[in-house]
Specification:
single chain, about 450 residues, alpha/beta, Alpha-D-Glucose-1,6-Bisphosphate, Chain A, domain 3, 7-stranded mixed β-sheet, 5-stranded mixed β-sheet, about 35% helix, globular
């Protein structure tokens, strides 16, 4: 069944366009009703990133949850994985993160976590959608049963200690000069502090949020500023988080960007050496480079592929018993520690390998040669243009030309109205040509 509000990562859209106070209020009410189980006093924790619209959405959610009798604990700006962790730690019935992740400030979103810290199932999201579109007036709490709301202090320290405990007890980052770019987002306080406590020399950028500058020319989607700062400061490594810190991109000491596929390879190899892989393999999406798959095979490890979206990676990990997975965008899931992608904890795992191997990041994080990969986006207004007959024909022609010597992926984004066309193979010219052919066909339909 098609979902009306939820995408692959919660509800997301233009603030005060798609994500309105009215919608947030109804989501709070609907979700609160779904998660009221038992006779105990129910509670929800709410975190957010640094977008201006976070104030508006937070207030509307509080009104929704308290109106159905749930108590609300407000965390303020905190990384998404911290909200998931605190949902479990604080014995809450529900966790909410207000964020549009790597999008610019004028978008926002609502991510939901169950009491176990995991994102909700499709069935639960469909149930919430059904309630959002129904009349809930008769299900509101009585006057004496309304919920309360309060802000919680000290949550930043809780997450910092949690992140540090994912490393060996005696590990120190002493001697490492680290540039960290927090994207003017949710990790602007916790990431620099944790690195400093671990002994690193820390240079911080993207730590001056003003409500408008989240992900703006900074963070994991725009690592150019980080690369410049790494070279300028002659740092050993640069770490770029996104707006809600659930993904990470690394820059080596030469200023070259290291993507999530290389990070997966580094962590997989290290964990294999230490006997820490739960199963001999890694879970990734269809977007991970074929070079990663070939490299893992040389180590005796398999690459299990899923549809795009960290929720699908995590589902496969839980079903099949893997403890390492991720996406090339930098969503790295380490299920021994976290219930969702955690960019900062993934960065700490890499730093531990840097200290263990005592090698420069440029050498350590170049585990394989990536095959040429081309991705182009086509914006559309509605419908399913990728299923149109002319587009299907273009895709068939492209696959015939590739003749098994490459991969082709055509998919709608789960977070914005675009069709993403990706080609991968050894012949760059051929890949460009087949991708352009599909883009042209899509553009005619989407115009």
């Amino acid at each position: 069944m098609a979902r009306k509000y939820f995408g692959t990562d919660g509800i997301r859209g233009r603030a005060n366009g798609v994500i309105t106070p009215d919608l947030a209020l109804k989501v709070g009410q609907a979700t609160g009703l779904v998660f009221q189980r038992g006779e105990h006093r129910h509670r929800v924790v709410i975190g957010k990133d640094t977008r201006l619209s976070g104030y508006m959405i937070e207030t509307a959610l509080v009104a929704g949850f308290t109106s159905v009798g749930m108590d609300v604990l407000l965390l303020g700006p905190m990384p998404t994985p911290a909200v998931a962790m605190l949902t479990r730690s604080m014995r809450s019935d529900l966790g909410v993160m207000i964020s549009a992740s790597h999008n610019l400030f004028d978008d926002n979103g609502i991510k939901l976590f169950g009491p176990d810290g995991y994102k909700l199932s499709d069935n639960l999201e469909l149930e919430i959608e059904r309630l959002v579109d129904s009349d809930l007036s008769r299900r509101l709490a009585k006057s004496a049963a309304l919920g309360r709301a309060k802000r919680i202090d000290g949550v930043h320290d809780r997450y910092i200690e949690f992140a540090k405990r994912t490393l060996p007890k005696n590990l120190s980052l002493d001697g490492l000069r680290v540039v960290v770019d927090c994207a003017n987002g949710a990790a602007y306080r916790v990431a620099p502090e944790a690195l400093w406590e671990l002994g690193a020399e820390v240079i911080s950028i993207g730590v001056e949020p003003d409500g408008f500058n989240i992900n703006k020319e900074c963070g994991s989607t725009a690592p150019e500023a980080l690369a410049l700062k790494v070279r300028e400061m002659r740092a050993d490594i640069g770490i770029a988080l996104d707006g809600d810190a659930d993904r990470v991109v690394v820059v080596d000491e030469r200023g070259h960007v290291v993507d999530g596929d290389q990070l997966l390879a580094v962590i997989a190899e290290s964990w294999q050496e230490d006997g820490r892989l739960a199963k001999p393999g890694v879970v990734a999406t269809v977007m991970s480079n074929l070079g990663l798959e070939r490299h893992l095979a040389t180590l005796g490890l398999t690459l299990v592929r899923t549809p795009v979206g960290d929720r699908y990676v995590l589902e496969q990990m839980r079903e099949q018993g893997y403890n390492l997975g991720g996406e090339p965008s930098g969503h790295i899931i380490l299920s021994d520690y976290t219930t969702t992608g955690d960019g900062f904890v993934a960065a700490l795992q890499l730093l531990a390998v840097v200290k263990k191997k005592n090698q420069p990041v440029s050498r350590l994080c170049h585990r394989f040669e990536a095959l040429p990969q081309v991705t182009k986006n086509v914006r559309y207004r509605g419908g399913r243009p990728h299923e149109h007959a002319s587009v299907r024909s273009a895709i068939a022609d492209a696959e015939k030309r590739l003749n098994g010597h490459g991969r082709l992926i055509v998919r709608p984004s789960g977070t914005e109205p675009v069709i993403r066309v990706t080609g991968e193979g050894d012949d760059t010219v051929l890949i460009e040509e087949v991708v352009d052919g599909i883009v042209d066909a899509l553009s005619e339909i989407a115009a």
